[in-house]
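hey
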């Protein structure tokens, strides 16, 4: 394989020009993986931040505020190019992606409220890779490598172990069965808008413009939901501070990083890498909130780290 500087040799007029170098897929995978991991790390702070919300703030209000207000910030950063994505399409991918953006936060935050934070997070994020793989398989006929399966199974088992290690209070909820069902719905929504964003980016649209378009369309539905349910959340300085953090850091900033990562890795890989989120959430629960994690829980942490390392490590080329 030639180097990035082309073929060495003479510069005579009779020489054929050196063919353009093709970048190795490994650096793109590694760079994109780190962008997705950075976004997932920011997402992992949402549970800790949500514990600071005022009493009476519902999951619907938290979800609508996070991705509704954050969506406005995202589209404001690139509103002209975002509008171009909506106009030039394909419109189907924009609308389907926006639908996933509406479904995901409302189902995710309500799932945590009904089934418990640990169960809601693990079911929502842990089920997403399966839906992402099914979408790629059904829409494009793409096969999944043994490396992807091994990483997904290891990280998914690690998330399950973290749930079991959380104890009774962490996994109890008012309506556990309905909460688990909503977690599955949230996983489908997350995988759906990730796949639609990936299709738009691969179609030639910029990552920032694509995320701005999808979140701008989603905000058209989420903001009215916030107006109806957001009284307890937005009625105090503490609630406004929590809302501001959720909208700016784990939403706007994180999804800009996630969009840049989607331009470099497949949607199924990106969604699997997002299993880093419950790992960060567990560590913050121990170090910030004051929860305890036993040896069984740290074993789950090791499984998640091992699974993610299988996708991020650079493979040796012959």
């Amino acid at each position: 394989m030639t180097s990035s500087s082309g073929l060495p040799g003479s510069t005579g007029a009779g020489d054929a020009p050196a063919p353009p170098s093709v970048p190795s897929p490994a650096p793109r995978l590694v760079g994109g993986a780190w962008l997705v991991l950075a976004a997932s790390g920011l997402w992992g702070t949402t549970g800790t931040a949500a514990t600071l919300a005022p009493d009476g703030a519902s999951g619907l209000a938290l979800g609508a505020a996070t991705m509704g207000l954050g969506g406005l910030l995202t589209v404001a950063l690139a509103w002209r190019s975002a509008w171009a994505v909506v106009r030039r399409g394909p419109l189907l991918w924009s609308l389907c992606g926006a639908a996933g953006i509406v479904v995901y936060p409302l189902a995710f935050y309500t799932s945590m409220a009904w089934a418990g934070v640990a169960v809601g997070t693990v079911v929502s994020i842990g089920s997403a890779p399966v839906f992402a793989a099914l979408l790629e398989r059904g829409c494009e006929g793409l096969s999944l490598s043994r490396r992807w399966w091994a990483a997904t199974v290891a990280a998914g088992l690690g998330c399950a172990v973290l749930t079991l290690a959380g104890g009774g209070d962490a996994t109890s909820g008012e309506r556990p069965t309905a909460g688990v069902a909503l977690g599955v719905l949230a996983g489908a929504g997350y995988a759906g808008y990730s796949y639609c964003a990936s299709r738009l980016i691969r179609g030639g649209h910029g990552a920032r413009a694509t995320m701005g378009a999808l979140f701008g369309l989603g905000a058209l539905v989420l903001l009215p939901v916030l107006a109806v349910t957001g009284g307890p959340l937005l009625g105090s300085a503490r609630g406004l501070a929590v809302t501001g953090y959720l909208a700016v850091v784990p939403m706007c900033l994180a999804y800009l990083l996630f969009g840049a990562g989607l331009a470099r890795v497949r949607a199924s890989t990106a969604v699997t890498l997002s299993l880093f989120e419950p790992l960060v959430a567990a560590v913050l629960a121990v170090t910030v909130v004051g929860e305890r994690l036993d040896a069984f829980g740290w074993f789950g942490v090791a499984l998640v780290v091992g699974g993610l390392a299988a996708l991020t490590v650079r493979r040796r080329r012959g």
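The first helix runs from residue 25 to 43. Residues 30-312 form one domain.
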